[in-house]
Amino acid sequence: MKKILIIIVLILVVGGLWYVMGRGDSATPENATENGSVVSGVVIGVDMEGVAVDGPALVMIETEEGDVKTIAIPSMGILLCEASRIDDVFAVKAGDRVRVQGDITPDGYILPCEEEEHYFEVSAI
Fold it and tell me: What pLDDT score does 81 carry?
């Protein structure tokens, strides 16, 4: 009987934590459109490590509001990307200005590849 009570309490605690942790995923960003989130900012870092194992290139930007956002540009299947424009991520460097529209992934990255209206544009300052 005592074991059953402990199992029930554990299930309730785990279920409660799962519910509380999952509530933040449904929030819509202020800058969201029906075709994804629109963000612009200055590149502060580029991580190309994932590209070696068919993972995404990660471009970190700082927005005008001071927030840091990460853009995930897929390396595997980039030719199948539906976005209207994806600039060359290999040419991106710190200090470049970036504009992006894309979906927010569960990891919090901006993925500009799921819709034709999505884009990743880079301009040197």
Answer: 84
